[in-house]
Amino acid sequence: MKEKISQLFKDKVFLVLLVLGLLTIVAAAGVITVQRGNGGGESPYLKVPDQSNMIVEESVPQDTQVAVAGDSNATKNAEEEMKAVDSAKATAEKETQAAKAAADKNAAKSLVLNFNDSTRMTWPVRGNVILDYSMDKTIYFPTLDQYKCNPGVVIQGDVSTPVVAPANAKVQEIGSNEEIGNYVVLSMGNKYTAVCGQLKELKVKANEYVKEGQVLGYIAEPTKYYSVEGANLFFELTHEDKAIDPLDHMQ
């Protein structure tokens, strides 16, 4: 009986010591953990820097900047090349036109102005003759409401109709008056001259040579002397400063 009691007492003491030992180990482990966590006085959590006062700056990578600069330079170079090409084309066109004009003038200068009594002219404009040539008697002019002589013919035409040179000639004079408006005097050789009046937008200059069929200008609005007759071309032919009937020399 005593032995059982003694054994029970020993078992209790052992259990108590075991529990005390476990408690001692747990306490020691806690101390170590706390010391490690507080080592150096720093928090065990990761600190994030305060970004409230920081300015975020976006930067383009250097390679990207180089690429953009390269593209910009390439675009500028392409534009400059296009401008150079356009300029070269414009210059070439001007030179071509100048060469053509010079060739036409040289060709015209080589023309023989040999108009004579048997020469037949091109009609300067196609249309009805509304007032005939008449120097031996008077004819009625509707706008003026009177009879008078007519040194030329009045050919009906629409405004802006082209008027051409009736024969190879040299532009002797360009002028304007209130009766026939803008006019061109053509010297055709052998003292034959032709006058084309009621013109606008003249395409020739004084002392210029023109070929038969070349545009001299265009029919203008009629002057006040021909308002009733309407738009027309006044055409006069002279020989040795004397008016003659142009229809006698028309084709």
UniProtKB/TrEMBL annotation:
Domain of life where this protein originates: Bacteria
InterPro entries: Cell_wall_metabolism_enzyme (IPR050570), Dup_hybrid_motif (IPR011055), M23ase_b-sheet_dom (IPR016047)
Residues in M23ase beta-sheet core domain copies: 150-246
Record Gene3D superfamilies: Glucose Permease (Domain IIA) (2.70.70.10)
The organism of origin for this protein: Lacrimispora defluvii
Protein name: M23 family metallopeptidase
